[in-house]
Design brief:
single chain, alpha/beta, 6-stranded antiparallel sheet, 6-stranded mixed sheet, binds adenosine-5'-triphosphate, binds magnesium ion
Length: about 375
């Protein structure tokens, strides 16, 4: 399953957008244009759908409706999300799911649904509020999506959304998880529990996946000769043999790995794990530009065997210089006082013409994401 289209109203810095999403989507735009906010919609839907989650918690984790609702919202202040889900890139959507959310005007000011709708193959199969909702308004504090006794007819959507993975691996968190205490974040976005994730996969699969990563790492980090999983005192670790002047090389653990090595391991592991939607936040960070330029083709290779949709954000020209990227795969964000606009790059004639003239997607698009007055950016100390 894959998300083929998304329509948002009043979601954070998007007042109103309607965008087609491809199987491999690159989200680009200036700083603070809403790239992470866009990925957060899919994390929000995951948080609503997953066991122990639900609408109330998903909204609360984001600081409440006032934080989610677009500051540019005026006459119609409800937050609305609609997604179309297809089986493959070509087909008409098998499913559509949409919700409207607002905050109660009185009492506990809980987030409540203004509607919740589900379509299957073009037929509407759920249209809330249903009569029971009108008799007991409290029912509107929960989606049908999150409840197993109400989502039977569309549990597939719930399972699909629940399987979404977001990765923005912060190497220091993985290396020193004990130094970062406090409640764990939903879905482990920053990879604090990444080694536990590796430990939960059965041994045979784990070995196979690590072998593939090892093969890629030997190219990216030539001193690294071997990568394996170990456990000590019940705690999972990654161990590598690094070649140096001594004949046998030296063993190193994850806390000694370089930031780029860990981010690359995280990326390659996640690409192999599961088949739900994968959200990658700036996968270029800490990586050498030659490696970054390979990321689009690595994802493409993965998608030939595994039908996993990947949506990533990026600022990297190296990544977007890959001529194999189609303009339908690039979504450009442009901020305005009325919230950010989103357009698929293939809908912008100027960009199409630049590509036809021989430019790479990165060279044609990224200059549009730089601040207008960038030359004035200086930092005077005295
Ligand atoms: N409810 C809201 N209404 C309007 N704008 C909002 C709302 N919530 C957050 N924002 C704005 O969204 C912006 C942050 O967006 P986001 O983090 O998605 O940017 P980004 O494109 O990922 O940037 P970067 O490239 O720096 O990571 C901030 O400027 C913030 O003010
Ligand atoms: Mg961001």
């Amino acid at each position: 399953m894959r998300i083929s289209r998304i329509i948002l109203k009043n979601w954070k810095n998007f007042k109103e957008i309607d965008v087609l999403v491809s199987d491999r989507a690159f989200i680009v735009g200036p700083n603070a244009s809403g790239k992470s906010n866009f990925l957060d919609v899919f994390r929000f839907l995951r948080d609503v759908s997953k066991p122990g989650g639900g609408l109330q918690k998903a909204v609360e984790d984001r600081g409440g409706i006032p934080k989610i609702r677009c500051l540019a919202a005026r006459a119609f202040p409800d937050v609305e999300i609609e997604i179309h889900i297809s089986e493959s890139e070509e087909s008409v959507p098998a499913w559509k799911y949409s919700i409207g959310i607002k905050q109660e005007t009185r009492g506990y000011r809980l987030p409540i649904l203004t509607y919740e709708k589900v379509w299957k193959n073009g037929q509407i199969i759920l249209n809330r509020p249903v009569p029971d909702d009108n008799k007991d308004k409290e029912r509107l504090t929960q989606t049908y999506l999150e409840q197993i006794n109400t989502n039977k007819d569309f549990r597939e959507i719930s399972r699909f959304l629940e399987s979404t993975v977001y990765l923005h691996l912060v190497p220091q968190l993985l290396k020193h998880p004990q130094s970062f205490t406090g409640p764990d974040l939903s879905g482990d976005p920053f990879g604090k529990g990444f080694l536990e994730r590796i430990s939960k996969v059965n041994e045979k699969t784990r070995k196979a996946w690590l072998r593939k990563i090892e093969k890629a790492l030997k190219v990216a980090v030539p001193q690294l000769k071997e990568l394996k999983y170990t456990e000590e005192l019940g705690r999972p670790h990654l161990e590598a043999v690094y070649e140096h002047w001594r004949p046998k090389g030296a063993k190193q653990r994850e806390e000694q790995f370089s930031d780029g090595t860990l981010r690359l391991i995280g990326l390659l592991w996640s690409l192999q794990e599961g088949d739900g939607l994968l959200l990658l936040e700036e996968p270029e960070l800490s990586l050498n530009s030659a490696i970054v330029s390979k990321i689009p083709s690595i994802i493409y290779q993965l998608q030939k065997t595994r039908k996993r949709q990947v949506i990533l954000t990026s600022h990297s020209i190296d990544l977007l210089n890959d001529r194999g990227i189609s303009l339908d795969e690039i979504i450009l964000l442009e901020p305005s006082s009325e919230g950010s606009n989103m357009s698929v790059a293939s809908s912008i004639q100027e960009i199409k013409a630049m590509l036809a003239g021989g430019m790479t997607p990165g060279a044609a698009i990224l200059p549009r994401t730089k601040p207008k007055n960038i030359n004035q950016l200086t930092f005077e100390l005295f």
